[in-house]
Write a structure and sequence with these properties.
The chain is mainly α and 139 residues long. It is built from 7 helices and no strands. It starts with a helix and ends with a helix.
Amino acid sequence: MSVHHENNTSEKMEKLKKAASQVNSVLVFYNTAKDAYQHALHNCKGRWPAAEELIAEFPSIAVDYAQNIIKGRWERIEPLLKKHPSSLCKYAVHVMKGNWEEGEELLKEDGTYWEVYQAGLRDLAREAEAAEITESTSS
């Protein structure tokens, strides 16, 4: 085996080790963010400011945090959501509970989540209509 081939193989192995280490780091942070969200939900029973920077790095966890902890809009995560159509869709429908024009372009480009978003908006409209009917008949 040539020296060049050995060096090339060694370099590839080092790159693979580095990549694996980075993946493991992301997984550790993801689990930590998920654990932080769970801690806020079950133990703090509200916001946990010390963990919000970490939670905000992971769109799906951040949307759950906004929906279930903040119980409303979390502007800090909105720029990140514009890169993640599934989380953006869930945020618009379940957190903002309505149209989010700033995110609609991404959803339209995606197609699949545009349909989910539209269905979610229709469901919200039906729920609002049902609530109005219930309120008017109970008066």
